[in-house]
Amino acid sequence: MILVTGATGQLGTxxxxxxxQKIPPSQIAAFVRDETKAANLIKQGVTIRIGHYDDxxxxxxxxxxxxxxxxxxxxxxxxxxxxxxxxxxxAKKADVQRIAxxxxxxxxxxxxxxxxxxxxxxxxxxIKASGLPYILFRNILYMDAIPQFVGGxxxxxxxxxxxxGQARVALALRNEMGEAIANALVTNHEGSTTYRLTxxxxxxxxxxxxxxxxxxxxxxVYSPSEPATFETxxxxxxLSAVMARRITGFIKDIANGQEDLVSPDLERLLGRKPTTxxxxxxxxxxx
Length: 287
Hints:
The chain is α/β, with parallel strands linked by helices. The chain contains 13 helices and nine strands. Pfam families: NmrA. Its EC number is 1.6.5.2.
C-alpha cells in the first residue's frame, strides 16, 4: 500500500488522481488532517488515515501496512524539519520499505537567500541517514504559480515588475509533476533514486511577458525591479515585513539562478515532452 501525506493539498490531490489510474484504490491510503476535506477520496475508495505531523500516535497508526510512503513537504515552514523527522522516524519503526519526499530543485542550497528552503535538504539528509531506500523528487517552481507571481489578470494592465533580473526557470505544470511522481511510485526501484522534475527548457520573465502578449493580444512588458523597492511595495500592500522579506528572498534566489536547472527526468517519467510555457499559460489563463 502507498501512503500519501498532505493528501488533500494541491500536489497530493494530483498524485492520488494519477495513482488511481494505475493501481486499485485499495492500494492507496491518504494521510489527512481534516476528514471532511477528503470526502472525494473516500468516494473513490481511498483509505483515509487522520492525523498530523506533530502527533506521533496518529503517525504510528497511519504507517501500519504501508510499503511506500510519499512525504509531501509540510507547509509549516518554521517547524517543517522536525515534523518531517517525526514522519521518517515512525515510517522506519513501522518497517515501511521505501520513503519518497517532495523536495526542491535548486542549484546551490548553501547560497540560498531564503533560508527556509534549506529545510528541504535537511529533510533529505535525515531520510538518507535513516537507512531506508528513498526516492527524492526535487521539484522546480510550478508554472501554476506564475499568475500569483505576476498579479493574475492585472498583469495585462500593469505588466510584470519583479526583482528577478535576467534569470531563467525551468517551469513545469503541477499536474505533470504529480503524474510523474505517481509513475515513479508504482515502479519497482532498486536502491535509492533522485529525480529532478523540471521542464525541458528554462524561461525568463521576458519570455513569460512575450507569451502572455502573444496569447492575449495585449502588450505585457517585464520591467525588472530592485529588491528593496519590491519589498517596500509588498509592505505597502499590507504584507508584514517578515513575509515581504521572505517573498523577496525567494525571488532573489530565482534572480541568482537557483532554479535555472533543466533535467530530462520529468520527460522520462511522463513518456512525453512536458507542456511548454506557451501552452501552460494558455491553460492557466484560459486564453
